[in-house]
Structure formats: C-alpha cells, structure tokens
Amino acid sequence: PPKKKDIRDYNDADMARLLEQWEKDDDIEEGDLPEHKRPPAPIDFSKIDPGKPESILKLTKKGKTLMMFVTVSGNPTEKETEEITSLWQGSLFNANYDVQRFIVGSNRAIFMLRDGGYAWEIKDFLINQERCADVTLEGQVYPGKGADGNEKVKNKTKPEKAKKRKDAEKKSNGVKEDNRATNQREEL
C-alpha cells in the first residue's frame, strides 16, 4: 500500500497522479473530449454529388476544425489587412459563422473555422469581396474578385522563374554590368 503523505508535502508528480485517479472514475461527455479523440461523424452518402468532389470534402470536414488562408489584394499594410479582414469576420459573424482570424503577414490572414463543413460557403463569400486576391482551402487556391490578371496566372503556373532566366541571359550576352566604381570621377 502507498504511504500516506501530508497534502502539504505533495509535489507536481503526486498532484498529477491524484488528478488521474479522479478523472479515471469520471464519465467525460463526448462533446468535452478533444477533437482527435471524438469519433468521426457518420457520412450520409445520399447527400454526395458525384459530379462535385467538394461535396465529399464538405461532409468529411463537418464538425472538424479547419483553416483557410486569405490574401488581401493590392499592397496593404498589416494594419489595413487587419481592418479589411476584421470587416469580413464581422460579416461572417453576423451570418452566424464561428470564425477566428489571425494575421500572418502584411497581406495574408488565416481564418479558423470550428466546423469545416461551412468552409466552402465562407470561401464563396470571401472570393466575392473586392479586396480578396485569393483563398487557399485544403491545398486548392481559389482566385478572388480582387485578383488582377497577373495574380490569377501566377496561381496556375510560375512564369517568374522563366522571366528571371531570360533577363539573366540578356545581361550575360550584352554589356556586362557590375557593382564596381569606375576609375573616372564625375564632376557634379
């Protein structure tokens, strides 16, 4: 049998053991379990549209936490991004969507949803906003209303690398430019 200790002499390990003993006898409700320990919700296959793969994702993400990345168009400062995404979050809140927002760059934010089943409805709302450049959801990039032609092309392919190579070839073939100061002084 374990020794009886005075409660004042308990250390952190003793307190952790005591907590485990108390929790072992408790019945934890399913809603109180962490998300990774909850059983997955049953999927109703009659609601799946075989022509739309998004319908399968909607059903599999229902009840699970999901994050989407949103890019604000133009070159906004972090404060402008904060204000714009705050307006979007407020509109979604008024439409009864539980969304948390985190700014991760000068023009980028993360929208975290408690229920991933609503993600595609929220995505549709966001891409119809004037200042939304794009929304990334489950690895798929959806161009927004605020995306100009260059940004839409950039999502499909990356022509920037080819352009940089061509510029480098032109410089190497033409007059060689370097960073060294010339021997001649120029009068101002």
UniProtKB/TrEMBL annotation:
GO molecular function: low-density lipoprotein particle receptor binding
Any GO BP annotation: protein folding
Stretches the record annotates as Disordered: 23-45, 140-188
Record field: transmembrane: none
Segments of skewed composition (Basic and acidic residues): 148-188
Subcellular localization, as worded in the UniProt entry: Endoplasmic reticulum
Compositional bias ranges of the Acidic residues kind: 23-32
Gene Ontology CC: endoplasmic reticulum
PANTHER family assigned to the protein according to its UniProt record, in alphabetical order: LRP CHAPERONE MESD, MESODERM DEVELOPMENT CANDIDATE 2
Family: Belongs to the MESD family.
Protein name as catalogued: LRP chaperone MESD
Species whose genome carries this gene: Sinosuthora webbiana
